[in-house]
Amino acid sequence: PDELTSLLVVMLYDLQDRKFQAREIFDEEEPVAEVRKIEHYLNSFRTKLAAALARWRVKHDALSIEYILPETIRKQEQRASAVPLCVWINTFKISLQDLFSDLKKKGFTRVESVSDFDRYTYCVDQHCHDVLFFPSSLKEELLNLDLFADCKLLLQDKSRSLAVHSAQALLNAGDDILVAHVGSHLTIAHISALTIHSMSRIFVCGVKSSAKADELRNLFSHMGCKNIHLLHEDFTEIGPTDPRIQEAKVILLLPQCSGLGVGNPIDFILNEHRDAGLLRDFFQGSVSEDKLSILAERQLNELMHAMKFNKVQAIVYCTCSIYPEENELVVKKALDSGVEENQVQPYRLVPPVFSTCSNSEPSTETFFKTEPSEISSGCFLAVLAREKDSPENVSVQDILARAAAKGLLDGIVVEKSKEKNQKVTQRTQHRHNITGSGTEPKTAKFLRYRTVSNIKAEVCVSKAVNTKQQKDVNRTKGYAQLKKSVSPISGTALPKVLKHTSHLSPAGKAYERQTSTRKARAQKERLVLKPVEIVLPPVITPYGRSQRNKPK
């Protein structure tokens, strides 16, 4: 029967691997009818099968059975076996420093790059600070370490870590993230580990069955993840106004792709739960035009759907494909489609940022792309971000949250800054109402042009403003003491209001003095706000920071 073909192929390969000798059967084995039946037929034709294989090897001058495979597949296998093992550190279970110490005790030496590998060595990735590389020859030994058994180290292709770090770099302290496909549970767990110190929630689409949901919850619980929420709807079935995802500011889109850029197709299919038909494409070395067209159309629809979420500020799009039809062309078509509504800012491409701790140099490339090689898998990554924030989206609270997420506030409590921001906002609105002017205040323009790339400058400005305010308070106190000590006041030093109050009654004079005092106090309050009125150089997007990555 056709359903037993796969079993037949596996058992035939196992038979030739044993030099066509009969397999030893143990008493504790549980008999399986289909297996015993196929095994009986193969043993009956062992001699003929061995002779047929020998004749084929002589005819094609093949050194081993591996030469039956096409040359492209053999090269793919050689490249996959040479690609360094990529793992990421689960910070729920162990810190980076503790892991490095543990590896040192186990006899591993840290080197600068993969070119320095020599048996028991490892290196830290230049883009992702929690990603390590090991020589591929150590795979069996590494998987037997307690670090892997305890989920402290997790084996996964680097392309997924790049996408995760790029998405995390776009999050504020309390922003949520929407993952469009469930894919590998390792990818979702990695996002959770990177958001360990924030209040961010991770929403994962496409968990259809309750059995799958229970399985994922058990896996996440074993790895220490707690901020993951599973949604049974597909990504395209969730509307932009869904109340569950109103705080989501970043969408991570890892669509189904041809996957010809991955180093190890078997691991990719198993970990990502992809179609086994991908193996056929690897054997052929290419993907048919019809299949490529279907994949590209589906990817475009998903990306355009992601652009419809008004409150989302950035989209991370990542594939393991080597075809422009699935990469650059999909992104370009989505940007040209104009699916965003008129009241929201349009998207544009921005260079990806992977980690604030990375050692990579800044880049101005709008795409991050690597070709399959002997040291890495193929990967394509693009980041789409809103061109600029509208005044209602950018506030002092957002800026402080971004600064806190990047560790720039050094212990300053954000909640206090929120209260102070509310007071300043009320005071600014009150002054605007008094003037009755229809022009936009400079403080509003200032908030409009603030971006994440200027956060460090904003923190410095904030400190300077605080210093200025303290000086103004001290100056005010000194002025009050001087006023008490000096009783005679010359006519030239008097305000104009007081100069013309000689004809008023005592009650009128008191009223004028109170009016003058209120005006003076209002002027001092305006002086406190004056240093804030600084216009920094405008930047189009809040995510357009100076980049730290450089595509290979």
Tell me about the biggest sheet? 8 strands, mixed
Per CATH, the architecture of the largest domain is 3-Layer(aba) Sandwich
CATH fold annotation of the largest domain: Rossmann fold
Overall pLDDT, averaged? 77
Beta-strand proportion: 5-15%
End-to-end distance, in Å?
Answer: 49 Å
> Per the principal axes of the C-alpha atoms, what is the gross shape?
globular
Secondary-structure class = alpha/beta
Number of helices: 20
CATH class of the largest domain: Alpha Beta
Helicity range of the residues?
40-55%
Tell me the radius of gyration. 33 Å
- How many structural domains can be distinguished in the coordinates? 4
CATH homolog superfamily of the largest domain: Vaccinia Virus protein VP39
What are the segments in which pLDDT stays under 50 over at least 5 consecutive residues?
414-421, 423-469, 475-503, 542-552
Give a count of the beta strands, DSSP E runs of length 2 or more.
13
